[in-house]
């Protein structure tokens, strides 16, 4: 499939490359180098004229609390909604402007401008997110200008910028220790030096990041005691990255850079899909049942990138990126229970949703040794992924008439694959109340599936400027083929092939946005674009489509920044993918995409930032920021019980589950040259966890979370750091999926040292 599709599309690739190489014209100031081509918003002080919603969190902002949880970082951005699962942010659920927060499957997530999901087309809800703790900057872009960063264009795009190669030999080391034997160590060293007589340069960077915790949940352990420590419910993450760069003299007429990047990420996470009944949660929200004692996920991810940048003329540039990622994982966890010993297994979501009906199954989960015939099935969700591609971006700056133009064109050829080879291990409860392996089913006996995707994505966007006007008009095209094959046995032969299906999506995605400067401080903006996300592999699947509008204003005086943007996303069809983490799939199969029809989502995003100390000349910095998001949504038709996950049995007029109406994030700081304090407050209103009226009691709690951090410089190269996350030790239900009530993270202390050299 792949070879044929590539040859068929070769003229399209060649045309885009020729367009990027062949651009020539008059000189225009750009000042860009490679960093400008892997960013999506530019520096924070360059956001004012962007014709759409854009925010950037720089290194200083990220270091303020030294978060490693993507949820805690991104909740500072209006319009971004996060849904917790296990408290540490190891499995982020991120949505923008009401898109389904299903493992980030409806937003575009990138690192250094390259898609990072293990298989972003074939399996967009797969488990991988780069370590936020080693990022140098985080950018979020929504609205019409985000169509450059597909394939998911409805909500927007997140781009994380990794640590750049320093201009001189230098480095850093952050060493922090925290609650529950927590450890965060982040260090890097690198530099740049001249080579040869032509002014060429060589740069290098080595970076390591580790993040560990024993976890805040406590497993029921019949063998606990002075000589038997509590079982680990935490995680261990190890990440290594290296960069090598060669570049010509920065003053050369034809400037070039060649950069190689490699990263490896290894994780062991001792977590579970199994939550608690409401009664048990109320008694002890941090308890874990015996039935989850063997649950854990192990992942390995390797990333390779080779990027070339050239400015063939004074007003053109071309960036070529070759990339590949390989991911291996096994999520080994309790899947279902046979409470009667008759071979009739019940899924854990159904058990926790109705514990009275499934009392025998629940007693096995709690480790009752008297239920001799009961068994639990642990599924080995064993999967391998790869993604690879070539991405080209070209820029051309020119003047035409009385307008200055910045034309950007791009083409990406991409392939990815998800390979599932899964089985069940059957466990029983011993007389001592712990689990032991009773039977192992054949490898591949539960799921033996291969899903492949290949895509050509092209876009062109022209940003025109004249006087107070800036107008960006863009057009994206996605040409995608997704193929899925299932085998009914562990063998992959034609006789056991039970399903072979494919679907093709070809869609044009236009976008138009504009800003107008009212004066030196005030500007207004408006935009409209098409939202798109591919469906699944079934020929009956439909792509997700919407028409998205936004309008608002910005203010920037240097001391004060503010913006208010209203948005309206009108879906003609919204999709949701059936996932195990969703807790149930109705008549769908894991990985299937189900159309939910028409949905309206609208709201308001507001952000205000001001330094009171600076404006009042107090001699001390007092930065204050407040971000607010209002989101309203409604299904425009009934959705039956066959819909997957949390949308089953939604009724016309219902709001979308998991998307809160109000979100507020506020921060205040005190800072002088040698010290600083920062307090962050995040408030989210309560929202239903699932649409089904029969489960209306399952609500994600409203909560106010306070985080406090500070640092004190003890040497020009060393700072002491301390932080408290969840300062008031708020207990709350973070979610009821995958199965049962799940807690947010309790109060956590961190302290350590940050050294620069």
3D architecture notes:
This protein is mainly β and 757 residues long. The chain is 8% helix and 52% strand. It has eight helices and 39 strands. The strands form seven sheets. It has a 22-stranded antiparallel beta barrel. It has a five-stranded mixed beta sheet with strand order 1-6-7-4-5. Strand 21 and strand 22 form a beta hairpin. It is globular. The two termini are 52 Å apart.
Counted by DSSP, the helix tally is 8
Biggest sheet, in brief?
22 strands, antiparallel, barrel
What radius of gyration results from the CA coordinates?
Answer: 26 Å
| Cα distance spanning the termini | 52 Å
Structure class: mainly beta
- Quick one: how many beta strands? 39
Q: Unreliable stretches, pLDDT < 50, 5 or more residues?
A: 1-32
Mean pLDDT: 90
Name the helicity range: under 10%
Query: Beta-sheet strand percentage?
Result: over 45%
Shape: globular
Which terms would index this structure?
757 residues; single chain; globular; 22-stranded antiparallel beta barrel
Gist of the model:
With 757 residues, this protein is mainly β. Helix content is 8%, strand content 52%.
Element layout with pairings:
Blueprint: H1 2-22, H2 34-38, E1 54-57, H3 59-65, H4 70-74, E2 80-82, E3 94-96, E4 108-111, E5 114-115, E6 135-141, E7 157-162, E8 170-178, E9 182-195, E10 200-213, E11 218-219, E12 235-247, E13 255-269, H5 278-283, E14 287-288, E15 296-313, E16 316-338, E17 346-347, H6 348-353, H7 359-365, E18 375-400, E19 403-429, E20 435-440, E21 447-466, E22 469-487, E23 497-517, E24 522-533, E25 544-556, E26 560-573, E27 575-577, E28 593-595, E29 599-611, H8 612-615, E30 623-635, E31 662-672, E32 675-684, E33 687-688, E34 699-700, E35 703-715, E36 718-725, E37 733-735, E38 742-743, E39 748-756
């Amino acid at each position: 499939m792949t070879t044929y599709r590539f040859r068929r599309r070769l003229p399209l690739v060649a045309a885009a490359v020729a367009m990027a190489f062949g651009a020539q014209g008059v000189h225009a100031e750009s000042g860009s180098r490679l960093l400008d081509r892997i960013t999506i918003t530019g520096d924070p002080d360059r956001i004012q004229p962007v014709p759409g919603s854009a925010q950037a969190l720089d290194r200083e902002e990220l270091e303020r609390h030294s978060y490693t949880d993507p949820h805690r970082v991104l909740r500072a951005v209006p319009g971004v909604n996060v849904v917790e699962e296990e408290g540490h942010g190891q499995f982020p659920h991120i949505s923008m402007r009401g898109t389904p927060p299903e493992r980030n499957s409806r937003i575009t997530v990138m690192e250094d401008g390259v898609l990072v999901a293990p298989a972003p087309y074939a399996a967009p809800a797969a488990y991988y997110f780069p370590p936020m703790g080693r990022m140098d900057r985080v950018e979020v872009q929504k609205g019409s200008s985000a169509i450059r960063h597909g394939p998911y264009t409805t909500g927007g795009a997140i781009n994380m910028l990794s640590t750049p190669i320093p201009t001189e030999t230098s480095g850093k080391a952050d060493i922090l220790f925290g609650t529950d034997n927590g450890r965060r160590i982040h260090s890097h060293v690198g530099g740049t030096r001249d080579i040869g007589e032509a002014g060429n340069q060589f740069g290098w960077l080595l970076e390591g990041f580790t993040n560990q915790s024993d976890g805040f949940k406590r497993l029921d352990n019949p063998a606990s005691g002075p000589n038997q420590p509590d079982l680990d419910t935490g995680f261990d993450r190890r990440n290594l990255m290296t960069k090598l760069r060669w570049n010509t003299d920065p003053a050369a007429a034809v400037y070039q850079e060649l950069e190689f990047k490699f990263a490896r990420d290894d994780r062991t996470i001792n977590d579970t899909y199994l939550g608690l009944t409401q009664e048990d949660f109320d008694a002890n929200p941090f308890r874990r049942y015996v039935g989850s004692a063997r649950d854990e996920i192990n992942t390995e991810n390797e990333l390779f990138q080779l990027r070339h940048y050239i400015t063939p003329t004074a007003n053109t540039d071309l960036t070529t990126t070759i990339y590949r990622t390989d991911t291996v994982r096994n999520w080994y966890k309790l899947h279902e229970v046979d409470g009667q010993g008759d071979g009739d297994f019940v899924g854990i979501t159904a058990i926790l949703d109705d514990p009275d009906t499934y009392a025998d199954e629940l007693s096995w989960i709690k480790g009752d040794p008297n239920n001799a015939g009961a068994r639990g099935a642990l599924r080995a969700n064993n999967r391998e992924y790869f993604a690879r591609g070539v991405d080209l971006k070209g820029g051309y700056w020119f003047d035409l008439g009385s307008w200055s133009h910045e034309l950007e064109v791009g083409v990406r050829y991409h392939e990815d694959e998800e390979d599932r080879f899964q089985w069940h291990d059957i466990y029983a409860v011993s007389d001592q109340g712990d689990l032991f392996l009773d039977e192992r089913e054949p490898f591949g006996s539960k799921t033996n599936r291969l899903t492949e995707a290949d895509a050509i994505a092209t876009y062109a966007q022209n940003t025109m400027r004249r006087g107070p006007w800036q107008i960006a008009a863009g057009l994206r095209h996605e040409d995608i083929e997704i193929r899925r094959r299932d085998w009914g046995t562990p063998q992959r032969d034609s006789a056991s092939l039970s399903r072979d299906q494919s679907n093709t999506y070809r869609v044009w995605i236009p976008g138009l946005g504009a800003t107008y400067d009212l004066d030196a401080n005030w500007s207004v903006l408006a935009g409209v674009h098409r939202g798109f996300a591919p469906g699944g592999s079934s020929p009956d699947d439909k792509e997700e489509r919407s028409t998205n509008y936004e309008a608002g204003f910005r203010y920037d005086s240097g001391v004060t920044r503010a913006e208010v943007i209203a948005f309206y996303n009108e879906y003609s069809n919204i999709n949701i993918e059936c996932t195990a983490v969703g807790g149930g799939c109705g008549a769908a199969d894991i990985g299937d995409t189900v159309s939910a029809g028409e949905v309206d989502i609208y709201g308001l995003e507001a952000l205000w930032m001001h330094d009171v100390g600076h404006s009042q000349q107090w001699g001390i910095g007092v930065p204050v920021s407040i971000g607010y998001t209002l989101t309203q949504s409604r299904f425009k038709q009934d959705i039956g019980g066959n819909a997957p996950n949390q949308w089953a049995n939604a009724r016309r007029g219902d709001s979308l589950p998991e998307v809160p109406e109000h979100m507020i994030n506020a921060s205040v700081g005190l800072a002088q040259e040698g010290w600083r304090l920062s307090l962050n407050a995040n408030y989210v209103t309560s929202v239903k966890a699932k649409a089904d009226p029969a489960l209306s009691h399952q609500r994600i709690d409203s909560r106010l979370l306070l985080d406090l951090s500070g640092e004190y410089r003890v040497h020009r190269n060393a700072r002491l750091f301390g932080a408290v996350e969840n300062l008031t030790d708020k207990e709350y239900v973070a979610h009821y999926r995958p199965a049962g009530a799940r807690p947010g993270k309790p109060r956590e202390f961190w302290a350590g040292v940050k050294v620069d050299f």
